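Reminder to self: tokens first, then the designed residues, so the page reads top to bottom the way the pipeline ran.
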């Protein structure tokens, strides 16, 4: 697995991608009708999609919903500790919660202020 460096996407990067991609699309004329190009970052409450996201966002607060209850619970919130044997490890207060990655229906970073 290649080393990945987490990098925040800012407004300047979104603007540059929009400008560059828009120019290429206009010059190459690949879209045969009128369109609006929108480029944005995933935002503060970005979805967590795969195992790499849980490693990348260690220490961040996350909200996880499972497709079937785990220990009688369907919704989890806690700090991402990481992955262990196919389970997401979250720290909720002083309690460790383990959620099987295979049961995750949806998960997002929680917005912190």
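Designed residues (113 positions):
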């Amino acid at each position: 697995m290649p080393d990945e460096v987490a990098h925040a996407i800012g407004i300047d990067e979104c603007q540059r991608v929009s400008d560059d991609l828009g120019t290429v699309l206009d010059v190459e004329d690949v879209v045969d009708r009128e369109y609006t190009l929108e480029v944005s970052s995933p935002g503060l409450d970005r979805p967590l999609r795969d195992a790499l996201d849980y490693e990348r966002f260690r220490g961040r607060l996350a909200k996880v919903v499972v497709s079937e209850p785990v220990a009688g619970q369907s919704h989890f919130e806690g700090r991402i500790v990481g992955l262990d044997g196919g389970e997401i490890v979250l720290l909720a207060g002083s309690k460790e919660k383990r959620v099987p990655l295979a049961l995750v229906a949806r998960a997002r970073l929680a917005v912190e202020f």
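The mean pLDDT is 86.
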